[in-house]
């Protein structure tokens, strides 16, 4: 029986240092983007962070790698907030509202960071995939029967397709909303989130009613 290898303390400390340094660089990049704008250069980001471009390239390879890391940090924050909110949401429908609200608040907290994170296909895919996952989980909680697989959707359930469509719906409304913060008639994040959640659930309700009527016929 072979002995369990003992972790090398130096390697463990070095990995911890690299993780911490990477997280610090992501925070510095977010701060630079927030102040300067989504078209900020790597040179400007490095200067704002008090380091050189080569350090950022060492950790992220290129600007797209940094954009993807910033996007992932936003998703991680969003997921943590949703988990906390999910524990206190009185109903699954309220959980759906909370998901939309967290997204709107995250985007509105820094439109520059949001636009920087979603400016490339890889970054946008991170948002799309994770938002679809959050939304699919929410709809399956609201309407458990949507988990069932129907023969005509090629093994993907209705919640999956609803979530994919809902991502575009939520994003389009959210991006239009954050684009005009000075509008005197602008809805609050809570008002818009409540309306979006209501529209989304109404669509699900109408499908359920149509399906039940078809079965009765």
From TrEMBL:
InterPro entries: Homeodomain-like_sf, HTH-type_TetR-like_transc_reg, HTH_TetR
Keyword terms: DNA-binding, Transcription, Transcription regulation
UniProt GO MF annotations: DNA-binding transcription factor activity; transcription cis-regulatory region binding
Residues annotated as domain HTH tetR-type: 19-78
SUPFAM superfamilies assigned to the protein according to its UniProt record, in alphabetical order: Homeodomain-like
DNA-binding region listed in the record: 41-60
Protein name in UniProt: TetR/AcrR family transcriptional regulator
Organism: Enteractinococcus helveticum
């Amino acid at each position: 029986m072979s002995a369990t290898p003992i972790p090398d303390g130096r390697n463990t400390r070095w990995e911890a240092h690299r993780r911490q340094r990477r997280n610090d660089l992501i925070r510095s990049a977010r701060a630079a983007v927030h102040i300067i704008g989504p078209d900020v250069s790597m040179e400007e980001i490095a200067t704002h962070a008090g380091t050189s471009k080569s350090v950022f390239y060492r950790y992220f390879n290129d600007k797209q790698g940094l954009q993807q890391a910033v996007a992932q940090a936003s998703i991680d924050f969003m997921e943590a907030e949703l988990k906390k909110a999910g524990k206190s949401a009185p109903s699954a429908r309220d959980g759906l509202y909370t998901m939309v609200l967290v997204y709107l608040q995250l985007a509105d907290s820094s439109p520059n960071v949001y636009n920087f994170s979603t400016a490339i296909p890889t970054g946008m895919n991170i948002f799309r995939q994770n938002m679809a996952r959050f939304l699919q989980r929410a709809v399956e909680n609201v309407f458990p029967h949507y988990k069932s697989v129907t023969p005509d959707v090629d093994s993907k359930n209705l919640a999956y397709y609803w979530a994919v469509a809902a991502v575009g719906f939520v994003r389009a409304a959210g991006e239009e909303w954050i684009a005009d913060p000075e509008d005197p008639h602008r809805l609050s994040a809570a008002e818009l989130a409540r309306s979006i959640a209501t529209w989304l659930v109404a669509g699900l309700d109408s499908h359920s009613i149509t399906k039940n009527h078809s079965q009765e016929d």
